[in-house]
Each structure stands twice: as structure tokens, then as C-alpha cells.
Amino acid sequence: MSPAGRRRYVTQADVAQAAGVSRPLVSLVMQGSEHVSEEKRQRVLEAAASLGYLNNGIATSLAGNRSHCMVGFLAQSLSNPVFVDVYESLVEELRAHGHRVVLMQGGFDPEEEDHSLRDLVTLRPDGVVLVGYAGSTSALGAAVNSLPVVAVTRQIEMSGVSSVYSDDRMSADLAVDHLVALGHRDIAHLALPADIPYEGRADGYRKAMARHGLPDRVVFPELSARGAAEMVHELMTEGSAPTALFCGNDVLALGALDALARLGVRVPEDISVVGHDNTSFAARMGLTSVDQHARQQGRIAAEILMRMIEQENLKDEIETRRLLPRLVVRRTTSLPPSPR
Amino acid sequence: MSPAGRRRYVTQADVAQAAGVSRPLVSLVMQGSEHVSEEKRQRVLEAAASLGYLNNGIATSLAGNRSHCMVGFLAQSLSNPVFVDVYESLVEELRAHGHRVVLMQGGFDPEEEDHSLRDLVTLRPDGVVLVGYAGSTSALGAAVNSLPVVAVTRQIEMSGVSSVYSDDRMSADLAVDHLVALGHRDIAHLALPADIPYEGRADGYRKAMARHGLPDRVVFPELSARGAAEMVHELMTEGSAPTALFCGNDVLALGALDALARLGVRVPEDISVVGHDNTSFAARMGLTSVDQHARQQGRIAAEILMRMIEQENLKDEIETRRLLPRLVVRRTTSLPPSPR
DNA sequence: GTGAAAGCGCTAACAA
DNA sequence: TTGTTAGCGCTTTCAC
């Protein structure tokens, strides 16, 4: 069966020899060409099957000077389900166009992101999708010169980079306005770390509070449900507790809800909570959350990318799509507790 | 800047011409060879930078007849956070060994899985990790002949495939024994679909119930929180409601909790709920769940894969690691309601 | 130190 | 219909 010694892939040359034909003929058979006699086709296919031949896509795309039909997806993290939503909808859309998607994890460290992006480009994809990219502009600039790039869930203002994103300032407006309309005045914000590229949420929150003439209160928990839980515990036990919490994303909101439950603080009777991203667990938990249309973003990104790939020239032919977020009100927000 | 017409990658030949040196010299410089004069090295590096040269990893590995330092990861789905845990811990471990990981989504359709696996192998990775693989044995057999394969979260009994998994029958034992010890007799099981490869959970549940002399009740919701919610709604409103629910995974458990909350059924006072996988949201929601040590599975898979890659011969040098699951008791399980 | 030549696995012109 | 030849971008002998 398999060769005894060092593992080695079976090549078309091996198949050709076994079948007693020339190398290019094997190539023709593998490509399903019509112009091959039935007899040789059979011989080749049998030889290939018995040797366990597997096409080498790397060599194919190199020789044919053609594309893999592959696009790269660089995700900062998958622990936030919203990124999974983007990925899945993108895969779905691109598959329909005959493209496959390979994902690499970037990470939160800019250097790591850079490195991952370079690794991805090394595979010579037809294009690259960046989700929550926080790398340097230099690595990005190099990529942009050679292949189409589209950023999702945030805008990257750079020549050659298309963007699909949701307006984060408006997200904050929606959340704050909703809470203020209910009568809240003491609204704290559980922000995403300052070094990840979603500062619009915190900025928007500050502006919205100022617009209502209310003082703002921003805290920066570690980016995890646990981190949020610890921060909320602190917030609720030291000094004056807010009557409402706007969380930078649903993962943080989940942690917040946990901490509140442990403290015996009732939601929404004692405190209201708003999340961000409207992930499926927000829906299941009855969490009021801002929807940034993740699946739609993935779909649009796929469309833009396909267009960029097809025209294949003119790096300034980029598109920018800003979506309007939508507040989904559920069971975690209501009137503030009446003053004692 | 970039060429006006059709987008084309800059090659070493372009760099060589611009720098006025030979092609191989550029290669040497790019590989950081010592045996190059400082002057030419500078010229080459400048030319490369100004042209925006990016190495072609595809051509490199082909020419050098050497590996990418890349391993493939085929995931059935990422909507279940437990698979993300496996992926992230694997990436962490393999990165430390200088390997990068590219992920492709398989899907639930066996044909799709097959296709994805072939696509992945086409990229000539050093090895492949399968998570929740449900493809055909033929595609797998072909892969196994050419490169190391390790299956995670389930066992694949096939020559050449290593496996890391948690004992699903024992999971069911832990859950059922816990509930029975609390006094439950009417325990229903929200099973994973029969066509995905985790039948051990349902089998184990049936056996455990039989062992206790109790009748079993298995229902098959659609594999999503929403599906579980609908199924549980049905279960609780038609006929006799069980006093406890053992769910095939935490996603289903989340849906179950949602449905119960909407029905006004209290957990754990009226009904106990046990999940599976001990995902981070189980921890945050106080869900009693069976931990299958996902991160540890990822780490072990990485170690096994590295070992298989290094020895590089003898396809029967495989390893099988069965982990023992652990029940984590939280707030969703307690005594059954006292009979009316 | 540097260039010429050969080759990785495959495809795409040819000619036969 | 088939084999021969050349070449994709890169690395790797091997002379010079």
C-alpha cells in the first residue's frame, strides 16, 4: 500500500509511469478533458486510485498561473460569536460562487496580526477579509498592492481597502437614548479595551451622555465574560451603583448579568442591561442588544470581494458600506428603580 | 506604484532586474543567507521594498520540496463554542512549535465534508485535525495515506488516524447518576441529531436509565438553541412533563432554559437541567454541565500531530487518548419538585 | 560572493 | 488522441 519509508505524496509522474502514459496525459485526465481515449483514461484512473494520488493544488495554481479559488479570512478572535456569524455567512455566500474560505486567527497583538496576514497572503489567496483587524498599516499596505482586501465590522480608511461596518456611534446613541427615555440618568459603560479597534462605541457613549447633559462613567474590564463579571461586581459594591449598564458587546453583557445574579441584583427591576451584537445567546437570554447585522455584513463583504476579484485591476475601485445598527429591546431593560 | 493594468504579484525576477542582480541572489537575500555582500543585500532589499515584493509561499514550498509549516483544521461548525475552544488551544500549542493553522468549515453534509477535506489536503498541509468529522471513509482514507490525521472530540477507528476524545457514555452516566441521586425519575434527553457523530451521548443516556430501571425518553430537536427551545416548549405543554432534562450540548441547554423561562417554569425548583461541554456561557449562566476538557483535547491533539509529523513514516504509529469527562454542578440542578 | 542550470508538480502551448 | 517542450516562482546544487 503506502511506501514503507518516508511519507511522500504520489505525483502525476508516478501515475503516468504506472499507467504507461506520458505525464501531461495524466494531467488531461485529471482535468476531465474530453480528448482522451476511453482506454487510457481508465488506465490512468485506475493507476491513480491504486496509488492514492491526490492533486497538488499548490503546483496546479502555480503552473496554470491561475487562482486557487480561495479567499483568506483573518479573524482577531472567534470567542465572540459575532465573528463566527460573519465567517459563516461569508463562507455560505462565497461557496455559492465556487470559492472556499480559509480562516486564520490573528490575535490581539498587532505584531501577531501582521504576521498572520503575511502568512495568509503567502498562500496566494484571491482576496482577503479582515475582521477586527488591529495590525499595522505597513503589512496591510503591502497586501493591498497585490490583492483585494475588505475589512468587516470596522472601517479601515486606506486606499485599496473596502469596508463593511456598522455605525458604532449610532449604536451608542440607540442604547443611551433608549435608557434615557426609560428614565435612567446614571448609565455606566462597560467598554471594549482601548487597544482593539472599536473605540466608536465608547466615544459614541460619551457623546450621547453629553448630549443629554449626563455625566459619563466608562470602565474597562478585561475582554471576557469573567472580566466583565469582576468589573461589575466592583462597580456595584463600591460607591454608588448605576441604574443601567451599556456593554461593549454581548460577551461582556453575559458576564455582567452573571455578576448581578450572584449579587442578588434583579434585572431589570434594579438595573437595566444593554448588550451589543445581538448574538444568538442574547436572543435566548432575553438581553436587550444592539444588532450590527453581522450576517448581512458577511454577505455584503463577500459580494464586494467577488466584484474586486473579478475586475482585478485598479486598486482604487473600493466600496464602503456603512450599515445602520438596530436596537432590539428585550427583557433586560425597563424603568429605573424609583428613588428610595 | 502598482502596475496600471491587471494586478500581478511582484516576483523575485522583478526584484532581481530592478536591483541588477541574478534571480538566485534575491532568493539568498530573502532567506537571510550570510554569504551575500552587504552592498548587494541592500540593493536587493531596497528594490524588494519599493516594488512591494511578497514571498510566494506556494512556490517556495514547491521548489524547496519542503513543508509550509501549516496544518489544516476541519471544523464541522463553529457555532458551538466548544469547537472554538479546541481550535484556539490547538493554535496556541502549534504556534509555539512554529506551525500555523488554517481552518476550513466542513458542514453537516457528508459530501461537503469530503469536499472540504480534499480542498484542505490540496494545500499540502503537514497534517490535518478533524473536529466532529462526519465525512465518508473514502476521502479520509485517501488523506491518511499521505499525511498525519488526528480526530478530536470523537474517535475515528481507522488505520492512520489518531484520536483524542472524551468518553460520551460516561458523560451520560455522570449526568443521569447525578439526577437520579437527587431523586429524579423522569429524565428526558434532548439529543444531538442522529446523523452527527456523537451518538455516544444518547446511547449512554439510554443505558444509564436502563441501569436504574427507569424508562427513557429521547427527543431530537433541530441542532440550535432555537430548535431546542421549540422542542422543550412542546415537551412541557403536551402530556406529562419530565422533572429533569439532560441536553446533548450547552447550546441546546441554553435553548431549553429560554423556553422554560418563557413558560414560567422555574429552574431548578420545577425542573433540573444539565448541559454538556461546560462552555464559558455555561459557567456564566450557572448551568450544570459535563466538561469534556475541550482545551486539553486541543492541546493533546497538537502534541500528537507534532509527533506524527516528526516521525514522518509508518502510518500505523497512531495514538488514541480517551479523556474522562467531569460533571460540574451549578445552579440548574436540585431535588425534583415534591409530588403534588 | 555570484551566476548558470536544473528541478519541485503541474499545465499549456505545440507538433506529431 | 498523444507525447514533446517550455514555463509558473522559487530553491538548490555547482562551477566560476
Topology:
The structure is a homodimer of 340-residue chains.
Chain A: H1 12-19, H2 23-30, H3 38-51, H4 57-64, E1 70-75, H5 81-96, E2 100-105, H6 110-122, E3 127-131, H7 137-146, E4 149-152, E5 161-166, H8 168-182, E6 187-190, H9 199-211, E7 217-219, H10 225-237, E8 244-247, H11 250-263, E9 272-276, H12 280-285, E10 288-291, H13 294-311, E11 320-323, E12 326-328
The structure holds a DNA duplex (16 and 16 nucleotides).
Q: Can you describe this structure?
A:
Two copies of one chain form a homodimer. With 340 residues, chain A is an alpha/beta fold. Chain A folds into three domains: 3-62, 434 Repressor (Amino-terminal Domain), CATH 1.10.260; 70-167 and 293-324, Response regulator (Rossmann fold, 3-Layer(aba) Sandwich), CATH 3.40.50; 168-292, 3-Layer(aba) Sandwich (Rossmann fold). The first copy, chain A, has 13 helices and twelve strands. Chain A has helices at 12-19, 23-30, 38-51, 57-64, 81-96, 110-122, 137-146, 168-182, 199-211, 225-237, 250-263, 280-285, 294-311; strands at 70-75, 100-105, 127-131, 149-152, 161-166, 187-190, 217-219, 244-247, 272-276, 288-291, 320-323, 326-328. A six-stranded parallel sheet of chain A has the order 2-1-3-4-5-11, sandwiched between helices. In chain A, strands 7-6-8-9-10-12 form a six-stranded mixed sheet, with helices on both faces. In chain A, β6, α9 and β7 (217-219) form a beta-alpha-beta unit. In chain A, α5 (81-96) packs across α13 (294-311), α8 (168-182) packs parallel to α9 and α10 packs across α11 (250-263). The first copy, chain A, starts with 11 loop residues before the first helix and ends in a 12-residue tail after the last strand. At the A-B interface, α4, α5, β2, α6 and α7 of A face α4, α5, β2, α6 and α7 of B. The structure holds a DNA duplex (16 and 16 nucleotides).
